[in-house]
Design a protein that fits this description.
The structure is a single chain. This protein has 837 residues and is α+β, with helices and mostly antiparallel strands. The protein contains 13 helices and 33 strands. The N and C termini lie far apart (104 Å).
């Protein structure tokens, strides 16, 4: 017995020793405590005791076992309200001792000059009147540093400072040492043989730092932007036939000496491929694949272009859906011939999964109305899911320019054959207020103030009002566009305008125009649009008194042409100021004493004229970039029929075509062809104002209105009249645009060399007038308007400087005419440009 008693005592002592070494949270609860426990809370000041107790959930039978105690302890710590939490057992009670976190009184930022307090406050998690947490403060410190790094300041230092206040409160101060801006000092490429480094720099968004970098932010190092540039480079190569291209890496290295980043893209180009053949296959019974050939944008022998393959796939899939194959999926495939460097493209049409759209959920559109977004979809809830139509809707939403980002993702629906489309958007400002200024050799100085809104009231409406005032022109205009008329993809717009063009060194008269023009636009295809319009406007001539006084006064120094007394008597047939008895009834009368040409004066006498015209424009656009195109075709065909009421009748037709194609070493070729025809309808004469007026807009090297028919009635006496315009014109231009390879791309300078040719002829306006004081056609039948109207080919060669400057687009041209008409007006140097700010 003594041995057994000694053994039991030893076991009991060992158990006590083991239990005393366990952490408090692992102590086993006595049976009585497990049945009916009392939870006592100590140390709490702001948090209610009952709130603390609520974190401890009894198990089945109302028992608080060890697992429930552990879960409660973890939950309390996770609240962030306490610095420390301890659990003790005292008799039949569980004692929860807490040390509460301090309350943040205020949060301040010191040393931050480049980023405002409001922006930093919105990014951190610590908030005034919230609980203070050291872990949260550490996270906020890292977040502030990350914000500065995203803005290009990698030398930033952020130090948090805690100032204790009475009543368990603290002030939190973040001291920021911003450091210097950390920019990209160089962008290099390794492995590029087909395209130069300067050409690839033009493709990516990351730019090297230069003298003008303070006007933008693309020279700031951003790892996300660099990663996106890898995809841009890859897509560029795929577009140009390099099907095996890989952008292996984008290496970034900080250079302490240059205090900036060195970015290097490593490229494996592979060979350039062409299309070997194009075939169509279908696993769907009775599906005619031959009908899809018209929707293929790739053909045998052409350069392999992944973008054209993708567009072809999209259009084919949409066409299959229209024909009743709602679940058809078109998948492109390609077999490479590595020896011949060709790709055999196969468009496979298969039956896709039968999936329907359960809902379309919109997220992030706080201002834009839901229907403005939903109308960009060609499908709705309940329709068959079609990825091509979803991609088209995403592209349309991005083109609206209402959002910083748009992404459409799918989520599982209520069943396996249902999907939910989620449109995730981030809105941006769509209003613009601009003050524009510029100067050109034609229009002189010009300033414009405008205000516009692309998404008026969140309804997708466009409105703009502008006021311009210049040296030779001024005006007011109002524009409004409803892009979806009666919920159809048809834009309705109207323009109201008043414009005054004053006389200048090229014209002796001014023109005042007041008009209204409604229009309807239709998208026939992604690259083809049709616009129908109606124009109603009033035009009137304004003329300075010196050009309209009819006084035959040789002593009037204000006249542009000042005849001598003998000239007035012998040629003009006017009164001789030295002989009061002279009759002045023969010859040209006052028409030749320095006044404007006969058609101008006749237009002035007729007063304001109303023009009512119907017209349309067909526009075909495949340009790769509307602001700085390097590839593609732009065709603009216009016709206007005047005579639907009003005082004028005519049919005016114009064609303008530009073709861009890249050549070697980033040289872009631009071929520009244009032509026009003004046709007389019925017996009504054409006005001079309705004629085409051409100059440098047709052949560079000539003045505004410097080409074509011109009043030469008094050319032999040293006086040239106004340009009369013509009813027919044609023009052709060949231009080569090239960058200055020794300058950074970001400077935005390009050079151009060109050759122009064209002609304007066919004046059909008034040539005589029987008004009192004008030409005395009875006494002098041959004394009517004399003008030159030869179909002379004008041509010139020149050089240009194109600058996409921070102050707006500028262009300088110097052209020398090679052939010209006898009475044409030459202007070899020309420039123009402007800006908005």
């Amino acid at each position: 017995m003594s041995f057994l008693r000694a053994w039991l005592i030893a076991v009991a002592m060992s158990a006590v020793s083991i239990a005393s070494s366990l952490p408090l949270g692992l102590w086993p609860l006595p049976a009585a405590a497990q049945a009916t426990q009392t939870i006592v809370v100590e140390g709490n000041r702001r948090v209610e005791a009952e709130t603390v107790r609520s974190y401890f959930k009894p198990g089945p039978g109302g028992r608080l076992d060890q697992s429930a105690v552990d879960d409660g302890l973890k939950a309390l710590i996770a609240t962030g309200l306490f610095q420390d939490v301890k659990i003790n057992q005292a008799g039949g009670r569980i004692v929860v001792s807490v040390v509460e976190n301090a309350v943040i009184g205020r949060i301040a930022f010191e040393g931050n000059k480049k980023i405002k307090d409001e922006q930093l406050s919105g990014e951190i998690q610590s908030k005034p009147r919230g609980s203070f947490s050291r872990a949260l403060v550490q996270s906020d410190t890292l977040r502030i540093a990350e914000i500065y790094r995203r803005s290009g300041r990698y030398d930033v230092r952020v130090t948090p400072e805690i100032i204790e206040q009475p009543n368990n409160r603290v002030d939190l101060i973040f001291t920021v040492e911003e450091g210097a801006k950390t920019s990209v000092k160089s962008v290099e490429f390794v492995g590029n043989g087909a395209f130069s480094a300067s050409r690839l720099r033009d493709i990516i968004k990351t730019h090297e730092s230069n003298l003008l970098s303070f006007l933008g932010s693309n020279d700031i190092y951003d790892p996300d932007r660099v990663e996106a540039d890898r995809d841009l480079i890859r897509r560029f190569y795929l577009k140009n036939g390099y099907a095996d291209v890989q952008v292996v890496a984008a290496l970034t290295e900080y250079d302490p000496e240059k205090k900036g980043f060195l970015v290097t893209f490593k490229i494996e180009e592979g060979a350039q491929y062409r299309i070997g053949s194009v075939d169509f296959r279908s696993s769907i019974p009775n599906f005619d694949t031959g009908s899809l050939r018209t929707y293929s944008r790739v053909s045998a022998g052409s350069l392999y272009n992944v973008e054209l393959v993708e567009k072809s796939t999209e259009e084919m899939q949409i066409e299959a859906s229209r024909r009743g194959y709602a679940f058809a999926v078109v998948r492109p495939g390609g077999d490479r011939n590595f020896e011949a460097h060709t790709v055999s493209v196969v468009f496979n049409v298969d039956e896709g999964p039968r999936t329907y759209i359960e809902r379309i959920n919109l997220r992030g559109n706080t201002r834009t109305r839901d229907y403005v977004i939903r109308r960009e979809f060609d499908l709705s809830e309940g329709d068959a899911y079609n990825r091509a139509l979803v991609d088209r809707a995403e592209r349309r939403l991005k083109n609206l320019d209402y959002f910083k980002s748009v992404k459409i993702v799918t989520e599982p629906g209520s069943s396996s054959d249902r999907v939910i489309l989620v449109v995730e958007m981030e809105e941006k400002s769509t209003g613009d207020f601009s003050i524009s200024g510029g100067y050109s050799t034609t229009d002189g100085a010009l300033a414009e103030v405008s205000i516009s809104e692309r998404n008026l009231l969140g309804r997708g409406l466009y409105a703009k009002a502008s006021v311009s005032y210049g040296q030779y022109s001024r005006g007011v205009s109002l524009s409004f566009v409803e892009p979806y008329l009666l919920d159809y993809r048809m834009a309705l717009g109207f323009d109201t305008y008043w414009k005054e063009q004053k006389s200048n060194s090229y014209t002796s008269y001014g023109v005042t125009t007041l008009g209204f023009s409604p229009r309807i636009g239709l998208a026939l295809r992604e690259d083809l649009t049709l616009q129908l319009r109606y124009s109603l406007y009033q035009q009137s001539i304004t003329l300075a008194s010196a050009y309209n006084n009819c006084n035959n006064n040789a002593s009037n120094a204000s006249l542009a042409y000042n005849p001598t007394p003998a000239y007035i008597q012998n040629v003009l047939g006017g009164a001789d100021p030295t002989n009061s008895t002279s009759s002045g009834v023969y010859g040209y009368g006052c028409y030749g004493d320095g006044e404007s040409s006969l058609p101008v004066r006749k237009e002035l006498a007729n007063g304001a004229t109303w023009t009512s015209a119907l017209g349309y424009t067909l526009n075909y656009n495949t340009l790769d970039n509307t602001k700085n195109p390097t590839d593609g075709l732009l065709v603009d065909f216009r016709q206007d029929f005047a005579g639907v009421g009003g005082d004028v009748t005519y049919l005016k037709t114009a064609l303008d075509t530009k073709y861009y194609t890249p050549l070697v070493s980033e040289i872009v070729s631009v071929i520009h062809l244009q032509g026009g025809l003004l046709s007389k309808l019925g017996n009504q004469d054409l006005r001079m104002l309705d004629h085409f007026q051409m100059g440098a807009n047709l052949v560079r090297g000539f003045a505004s209105n410097g080409i074509g028919p011109r009043d030469i009635t008094y050319y032999n006496y040293g006086s040239n009249g106004d340009a009369l315009g013509g009813t027919k014109y044609w023009g052709a231009s060949m231009e080569l645009q090239m960058p200055f390879w020794f300058l950074p791309k970001e400077v935005g300078l390009k050079g151009a060399v060109y050759a122009d040719a064209g002609s304007l002829w066919g004046y059909q306006g008034p040539t005589s007038w029987s008004a009192t004081g004008e030409v005395n056609t009875k006494a002098c039948p041959t004394c009517g308007l004399q003008y030159d109207d030869g179909n002379t080919v004008r041509s010139s060669v020149g050089v240009g400087l194109i600058w996409a400057s921070p102050f707006g687009p500028l262009r300088f041209d110097y052209a020398v005419p090679i052939t010209k008409g006898k009475y044409d007006v030459v202007q070899e140097f020309r420039f123009g440009g402007g800006t908005s700010f």
